[in-house]
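Review form for a predicted model. The reviewer records the input and the model, then writes brief findings.
Reviewer: anonymous (R2)
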Amino acid sequence: MLGALCLVARGKFQSNKRVLGIATEKRIRPTCSYDFCLLEIDEWLPTHQEQMEALQKAAGILVNPEFGRTYEEEYPKDD
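Model under review:
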C-alpha cells in the first residue's frame, strides 16, 4: 500500500521525480517498526497515469486531498 501511495503522490505532483514514503504503526513506541519506499520515475508515462487512476478508483488514494501549510520557528524567539 505504501508503494501505491507513492505512485499516486508522484502522479499528483509531477514536477517531483522522486517520492519518499515513510510508514509506521499508529502509535509510536520505543519498539515500533518503519517501512520506507523510494520511488523514482524520471518521465511520467501514460501507463503510469493509468495505474494511478486505477489505484485511486480502487482505494481512494489522494482523490480529494486537502492542502495546507504551517510554519514553525526552529527555536523560540528571544524577547
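Findings: The chain has one domain: 2-59.
Further findings: The radius of gyration is 16 Å.
Recommendation: see findings above.
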